[in-house]
Amino acid sequence: MYCVREAMAVEGIKRSEATAAVQGFGNVGWNAARLLKDELGLTITALSDSSGAIANEEGLDPVSVYEHKQRTGSVIGYPGAREMTNEELLEMECTVLVPAALENAITSANADRVRARIVAEGANGPTTPEADTILDEKGVMVIPDVLCNAGGVTVSYFEWVQDLQFHFWSNAQIRDRLNEIMTYAFARVYATAGAKEVDMRTAAYLLAVGEVVQATKLRGIYP
Known about the structure:
This protein is α/β, with parallel strands linked by helices. It has helices at residues 2-11, 27-38, 62-72, 86-90, 129-138, 145-148, 151-165, 171-196, 200-219, and strands at residues 19-23, 43-49, 52-55, 82-84, 94-99, 116-120, 141-143.
C-alpha cells in the first residue's frame, strides 16, 4: 500500500480516479485490497482466488468478499459481481494491478495485454524477465517484489528488535516506522531508476548489491 501510494504520487495519478485489480485473496491479496481501498480510497474492481475471479467496475468491498469467502470457500458467487478467469483479471483495464498469487503470472505471452499503469508485485516473482522488458517498453511501472512486498519481513525485523530490548511498541508506532522505511526505500529505488535509466527492479538490485559491497568494505573481509 505504501509503495502504491508513492508510485501514484510520482506518476501524478489521482487516488479518487484510480482502480485496482488484485489477483490472489490470501493473506497478501486480501490485506492489499483492504488497505488500497480503506487507506488510499482506490476502487477495487476485481478480486480472485484459486477458484476464479470476480469483477465489478462500480467497486467491490474486500471485507464483504472476505466474509463471503469464509462462508462459501471461494470468492466465486459473490452477489453483484460477474465471474472471470484469473488470466482475464490480469488483462483488465485498471490503474493498479496486484499479482499476489502465483510465480510467473505475467509472462511474455500476456504482458503485452496488461493494461494497468502500475504493477505492484505482492507475490514472489510474479513477473518473468521477458515480461519485465515488455512492460517497461509499454511504460508500465513495475514495483518489484523485493521492494513492494517487503513490509512483512520489515515488521518481522521490528519484532526481533523489540524482543532483544524487551520493549514493545504500539500498533501506531509499528505503522509509523513501516511507513517511514517503505517510503524511503521506494524513493531510493525510484531515484536510482531515473539516474541510471533502468527499470525499478534493476534499480532495486543495484541498490541491494551496493549495500552488500559497502557492508563488506566497512567490516573487512576476514580469512
